Automatic annotation (TrEMBL):
Known DNA-binding region: 29-48
Name of protein: TetR family transcriptional regulator
Domain HTH tetR-type residue range list: 8-66
UniProt-listed Pfam families: TetR_N (PF00440)
Keywords: DNA-binding, Transcription, Transcription regulation
InterPro entries recorded: Homeodomain-like_sf (IPR009057), HTH-type_TetR-like_transc_reg (IPR050109), HTH_TetR (IPR001647), Tet_transcr_reg_TetR-rel_C_sf (IPR036271)
């Protein structure tokens, strides 16, 4: 492994720790965030000099990672049930970034170009519409509603796991079955 790869991995781990530190301590100073993330103040200052830079860097990292996770799920080509499993699994590789985006979404969304959000929403809506047409997803609600339900269930359960309300093991299965079958008894 080369030094560049180690640096990228270290940066990713530090960003994940900082994402959780910001979620858990939203009013913390940079020094307090560094301590919560387990890095020195000097390391964090070399990485980002202000809270605003840190939040922007995390927003960029989260957007890139979760967009890649969505891309890897093959929403346009794989059978809908398989693509949904991949979507969940790939997004669960970045729970800290999901928690960060969920926590800071309202502030971040105001600064994002509307077409960025619309593109993501359209992609998810198209996936759920394709799944409806294939008979995998229910048709009595709109594809847009299914998109919102998926994100709400996913982000809510990721947050619950982060807070210790449920175990990480089996989380993908819980997200999938709750989304597909609801909470009624079989």
């Amino acid at each position: 492994m080369n030094a560049h790869a180690v640096t990228e991995a270290d940066d990713s781990r530090m960003l994940a720790a900082l994402a959780l530190a910001l979620v858990d301590h939203p009013r913390a100073t940079l020094q307090e965030l560094a301590k919560a993330a387990g890095v020195s103040k000097a390391t964090l200052y070399r990485f980002c000099r202000t809270r605003e830079q840190l939040i922007q860097r995390l927003a960029t990292q989260a957007s890139e990672a979760l967009n890649q996770a969505t891309e890897d799920a093959c929403l346009e080509t794989d059978p809908p049930a398989e693509a949904l499993r991949k979507l969940i699994a790939r997004h669960l590789e970045h729970p800290e970034l999901t928690a960060f985006l969920t926590h800071y979404w309202n502030d971040l969304a105001r600064e994002m170009p509307p077409e960025t959000i619309e593109k993501c929403e359209q992609r998810m809506d198209a996936f759920f519409l394709r799944g409806q047409q294939a008979g995998v997803f229910r048709i009595d609600v709109t594809a847009a509603t299914l998109s919102e339900l998926w994100f709400s269930i996913f982000s809510g359960l990721v947050d619950a796991e982060r807070r210790g309300r449920l175990a990480r093991a089996g989380l993908a299965h819980i997200v999938e079955t709750t989304f597909l079958r609801g909470v009624s008894a079989p």
